[in-house]
Amino acid sequence: METSHKDAETAAAAADPRGASSCSGVVVQVREKKGPLRAAIPYMPFPVAVICLFLNTFVPGLGTFVSAFAVLCGARTDLPDRHVCCVFWLNVAAALIQILTAIVMVGWIMSIFWGMDMVILASYKEQGTPQQL
To answer: What phi and psi values does residue 26 have, to the nearest 5 degrees?
Structure first.
């Protein structure tokens, strides 16, 4: 026995305690919870972020190490309550983790993803829109 589309909507509305169906147009916002290492990635100019991605792709951790100095040059991060030196050392620690674990490929993959995050954050900075991840 086949159920029609209307029957499915009625069943969905009955199952929903608020009485809203799946077609009600409710917008759900999802925010990513960042750890301290991930939140320490600086918002750099787009060309610098692409260079860091390139460096991270071929020499794991090098682009992350370069991005640590961008923090000292005034690049903004998602850790506004931390001191600049603390954020610098978090980036250096991330670079060392990438370098030391590159032998087993984990650090190399982490390094590439870190570089991609740098480019994504730089594109948000260029657009002037807040990050909605």
So the answer is: -75, 130
Query: Whole-angstrom Cα distance, residue 24 to residue 36?
Result: 37
Phi-psi category of 103—alpha, beta or left, where left has phi over 0 and alpha has psi -120 to 50?
alpha
- d(C-alpha 79, C-alpha 84), whole Å: 9
Residue type, 123: S
In DSSP terms, 76 is beta-bridged to 43
If the chain, 133 residues long, is cut into consecutive pieces of 10 residues, what is the mean pLDDT of each piece? 49 50 75 84 94 95 94 89 91 94 92 94 76 50
Instruction: State the DSSP code for 75.
Output: -
pTM equals 0.70
For tokens 């409710």, the residue is: 26
